[in-house]
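Weekly structure sync - notes
Attendees: PM, LS, DV (DV joined late)
Agenda: review two folding runs queued last week.

Item 1: First target. Sequence and structure tokens pasted below for the record.
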Amino acid sequence: MSTNTPDPRFVGLLEGARSMQPRTVALRRQIHRHPEQGLQLPHTQAAILHALEGLPLKVTKGESTTSVVAVLEGERPGPTVLLRGDMDGLPLQEDTGLSYASEVDGNMHACGHDTHVAMLASSARLLSDRRDALRGKVLFMFQPGEEGYHGARYMIEEGLLDDGVEKAFALHITSTTKSGVVTSRPGAIMASADAFHIHVKGRGGHGAMPHNALDPVPAAAAMVGAVQTMLGRRVNVHQPAVVTVAQIKAGTTTNIIPEVATLDGTIRTLSEATRKLVHKELKQVVKHTAAAYGCHAEVSIVPGYPVTVNDDVVGQHVVDLAAKAMGPTWSEPMQDPLMGAEDFSYVLQRVPGALAFLGACPRGIDLEEAAPNHSNRVLFDEAAMEHGVATYAAFALDALR
């Protein structure tokens, strides 16, 4: 893919990744056919273990999850660098028409984690061939349960970082940016993600006589608008925040005023201070809006992933490193963070590091028309995986030079 001359330190790296492309593609497609969700992914774990066979790695399996941790020791002692690839799929029925489409009903690798596993496994092979250039250890983190199951947290609790990790890096593929281009940024790169559940209680009655009841439906409807007003009036405009009411439920038929209405949704922010403020203000708005309608409301907020914050130095360095490893055409600074969330945030809370995105928009598809991640029609250009393998390897070689 690349036509630019890379940094002399990385000469041959992209070519090495390209030579492994058949192996990378085969592993990706094997996993794509058999997606698994959550923390227990036995088929995916078995595929990873098979792919790592014969390499000079110390491999351990998770206890509470089906994670895999593989450690490569360089020829000389030194620090440890962590590379992560997540493993799990999503509850979607695939509609891509691919010859290797999911064979599991209602399950799909719609976020590209199959490519992450394949790229990380090939980078382990590529770095194993370059052990003499490594001063330290590379820890390959194959992580289940990224899609809302806190898989990284489980791995940390089992001792993932106990022996000390100096730097950490993860790639995430995306279908809506140019194939092969690596993008990242210093600071916040992805949002926190919390779920909220609102229970509005009134008093049920006949739909023809609302004056004899306390209807929770108007109160619930008013809360939707009130929350958006709260964002515009209580949250600093320079501190992005999103509150989305994704579900409203009430009632059983047309002529009954229900006793209860419920609202459920998500909160996204790019700083812990804003996160706390939105939690506080949401509860206040809901409480007083309910009272204005004579109802009572309770709010529960379920904490999700923290803000994903790249180290200022490492975040910028990843962009520069990709350019040096593959040429400036294949690296771009990321202007704005995404409001999606990532549990690599747990690692970055403890270790200086960065998350970066790897573009993989299929050739012949306009960026604006490409189905996004989490779509049942999402497609990824497999040729981009060469650059992912090379970027993983370059990060380790640079950190352990």
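Item 2: Second target, run right after the first with the same settings.
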Amino acid sequence: MASLLRSHFFFIIFSMSRFLVFISFVSIVFFSCKENPPTYGDVLAKGFEQKSYKEFDTTAYVKVFQEVYSKQKANLHNPSWMKKLSDSTAGMTLIAEHLFDGSIDTLLSYFERSEEHGIRSSYYHTAEIKETLFSLRKLKPKDVAESYPLLAKLDLLGTDGLVAYVSSMKYGVVNPKRLYGRYFVPQKRMNYTAVVHLLDSVKMGPLMAEIQPKNQYYIQFQDLLENGNLNNEQRAKVLMVLEKLRWMREAFPEKYIFVNIPEQRLRIMEDGKTSQLMNVCVGETDNPAYTRKGENHETPVMQGILDAMQVNPVWNIPSSIVKKELLASVRNNPNYLASRNMVAYYKGKQVDPSTVNWNADSVEKFRFKQNPGSDNSLGNVKFLFENAYSIYLHDTPAKQMFGQTNRAVSHGCVRVEKPVDLASYLVNNEKQAEKIAKEITSDSISKSRWVTLKRQMPVYLTYYTTWLDDDGKIVSYPDIYGYDPRLKEALKKYWTN
């Protein structure tokens, strides 16, 4: 009976008789179709050129491994995962496949260069792994049991360090959703299933090269970290940017719309350069920006594909605004809805405001819309990208706000200063652009209509208080939501000194 416990090693069970079972722990690297494949002891004996390893005893090794695990548990980043792996494999898997193929040295070389990412190399147990590997290589045991603690420690710390490194590079060292209530970019994190898959298929060199962040700004900030002669404050800001770009995981496309909330501007980016620039108004906030209770209006961090716009839009007023603001205005002024070109609906039917008891609790179930017009809060056009949070870009009748230094004044959506320019760019058709421009700038009330965009454009609502201009120089913006201190504190234990 043969049982494949992991692709990195095998327990080979040979039925010698009804009462005799011989168990061998064998690396997949050395597995062959021979009648008597080498035991794990044979593998070690050949690799270290020490005959004593032929006496390797799996049962005795597992007992030592458990002792080493108990001593190292507090130092592990993922102790529960390491325990599951060791229980299912009788002593881990990493060493069995990679001890003699140079992969452990490759792993260490990447760990030692982790400071290029602003993460201290000690976070990945680098020194302990290196010291243990050195001790194991120079060991000439008369009794194979002398090697058990070193093999166990090397496998345990090497696997834990590898999992932590892969997680850091692919997803960042902290989870932004635990820091901020309005961070809406989907996040993947390592889980045990992913760990098992990682170890099942790992080829160390290609893996480590593949997971290095490829974002063009990440590479530029790495260069600044290494060669920019930064002071402590600048260094801290660059380290925070690197972590945020690890959250993003991907490179920016050739063309995209970039709204950096602290800058309070929108940029249309083409091949790494700004082709159009305009002011925007972003969400206001009076409470800590990482709250999850919905008290704030800050513009969330999110991204999507801008694929449609509505000319002369209808504003479906969010329930949060209804409860916090609109109902109070209606109760104080029964003519408020009519004065603002708004209508109320109950169970899908429009209601006459004059017949409603606005002090009744049932009015909180009403739905409200603002019809197209010069006073519509969305102005004459809104730009949509699919999301579950009713966030979009739009025009506004309050043009004077674009002249202010602090433009964090909206309810969360992004008000754009030059809607005609943005619409013209998106439709990418001169005649259609002229038609839309006339509708947007017209004072007459027209019927609302949808425009599906042939040029679908990635849009990023981001939050960088430190960024690079088109010439690659560092620029800074005010931390209008107070995000940085929370992130800085979360990253301290990972940073290099």
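Discussion on item 2: DSSP finds 16 helices and 18 strands in the chain.
Action: LS to circulate a short write-up before next sync.
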